[in-house]
Amino acid sequence: MAAIEEFLADCERRMDGSIEHTRSEFNAVRTGRASTALLDRITIDYYGQPTPLSNMATISAPEARLLSVQPYDPTQIKAIEKAIMESDLGLTPSNDGKLIRLPIPSLTEERRKELVKVVRRSAEDGKVAIRNVRRDVMRHLEELVRNGDVGDDEERRAEAQVQKLTDEHVKRIDELLKHKEAEIMEV
Hints:
The protein is of the alpha+beta class. It has helices at 2-27, 77-86, 109-146, 152-185; strands at residues 43-46, 49-52, 57-63, 66-71, 94-95, 100-103.
């Protein structure tokens, strides 16, 4: 039935979105090595507009433990430096007037364990989002049966497909989590 196919396609699209969101949350968590994704959440007040750092500067990782930020507008170097200092990243920028360098300090064992808790929480949030999508789709399927648009057998087949999609997506989040935990705990 076309309505069921639509619901299943929407279900998969929304679950994929949950996985992408979880992946971006993981990328924002600092590990021991430099990653330009660390600075994705930083915004700078640029002439009264909150502007993402990536729109104002070239960000690169020239070494394993160093990020460099080269502003397109050198007059904004102080504002960028201030935004990085005020972020929750715990990085100390240094600039030479044209370029901001961000040394990435090694993580302590205690900080690593805290970060693992943070990524586990993000993973759990992703799984909850996936289960919420499943619940919504199941509710819509029951509605179709109540309205007489589809039969019980079609509904059961669709519910089995939704459960299969749910299991696959939860497994993908678990794999992302396992990979990220290993990356964090790597010394």
